[in-house]
Amino acid sequence: MDCANTADAAARTQPVRGPAGSSAILKVSSSDDASKDSHQCSAEYQLLVTPAAGATPTTVDFLSSDGDYGRSLSARLDGFSRDGGRIFGVLAEGPSSPMTLLFDYHASGGAVELVDLAKRFKSVMPAVCIRTLDVIGTTASGTFVLETNSAKHCASSSRWLLDSSAARPSPLSPSARFSPLYSAATATR
Fold first, then answer.
1. Per-residue pLDDT tens for 145-188?
2. Which of 50, 72, 76, 97 is the most exposed place for a label (fewest CB within 10 A)?
3. What does the angle CA 24 – CA 30 – CA 34 come to, to the nearest 5 degrees?
4. Residue 87: phi, psi to the nearest 5?
5. C-alpha pair distances (Å), 43 with each of 82, 113, 143
6. Rounded distance, CA 26 to CA 12, Å?
7. What does the CA dihedral 105, 107, 110, 115 come to, rounded to 10 degrees?
8. Do the Cβ atoms of 94 and 123 come closer than 8 Å?
9. CA 128 → CA 25, 53, 165, distances in Å?
């Protein structure tokens, strides 16, 4: 969606299912930033988490941004860790001041970690490719496993390891083992 000050300036992802009947929805809304000396548009990002089927949803407000009216706002919900303890997704804004952030929501404690993908991947691939990165899993140590979802060839490797404390990502070795995100289809087998 574009950042605007209209009554319907909000968008939601489709619900993503997690273990034990849990689910999540990512919501982005926009409005005038209400500053007297500014003509910017404010974007608010929320994660709506239902811990189990029939439970009351929790709303997690985790990011606000200010920028140009009309800038594109994109929110993708990649999914849950296999144990349901973490929820991952990617937020992107642009084009005038491009931003691409990975978010990692920790269900125990409710903390949200934001990782600047544009900063970490800028020497590895073009910005247009960075915006296509999805979280597809984690390693045993909790390192993110990302993959480009672009039809174009964006880099020599399409899968990457990214530790939130590391300055740069590293290509994922074809023999490397990782835990893919939770999938309702494979959980019932």
1. 999 887 666 766 689 999 988 888 999 998 999 999 998 766 54
2. 97
3. 135
4. -125, 135
5. 30, 18, 28
6. 6
7. -20
8. no
9. 25, 38, 24
Q: Are 131 and 149 in contact (CB under 8 A)?
A: no
pLDDT tens track for 77-123: 999 999 999 999 999 998 877 899 999 999 998 999 999 999 999 99
Which candidate, 44, 46, 94, 45, places its Cα nearest to that of 70? 94
Residue 118, classified by CB atoms within 10 Å of its CB into exposed (0-12), middle (13-18) or buried (19+), is: middle
Partners of 29 in the β-ladder: 10, 44
Dist. CA 132–CA 138, nearest whole Å: 18
DSSP alpha helix (H) spans, the chain: 117-121, 127-130, 184-187
Q: How is the chain split into domains, by residue range?
A: 10-187
The predicted model scores a pTM of: 0.90
Instruction: Supply angle C-alpha 141, 21, 107, rounded to 5.
Output: 40
H-assigned helices in 84-147 = 117-121, 127-130
Amino acid at 160: W
